Amino acid sequence: xxxxxxxxxxxxxPQNNKLRLHCASGDDDLGTHTIDVGYDFHxxxxxxxxxxxxxxxxxxxxxxxxxxxxxxxxxxxxxxLDCYWEARSDGIYFSGKNPPGALEKKYDWHT
Length: 111
Fold this sequence. Notes:
This protein is an all-beta fold. It has a single domain (3-107), classed as Immunoglobulins (Immunoglobulin-like, Sandwich). It is built from no helices and nine strands. The chain is globular. The relative contact order is 0.25.
């Protein structure tokens, strides 16, 4: 059985700050995008029966950046068909549903 997932990466930085991101898997390169505050960059995919799907994103905000996995098949239980990530000024937050419930800080920015 396969499931259809949606990954969301939302720019929740302070007003007038753009977020640049590049997301990809081993099979799909989603390209580099620059998104405004409040914008939700999202995509859909079907997790294959082999259970080896992996997506990562590299986020850039000014001189700060971070690269991390946004989906791994073995994490599927953490995402109720949606993985929701927010880029904020103090780091990257996660919720396993959309609309998100309480978000948990997962990563700090690197300089």
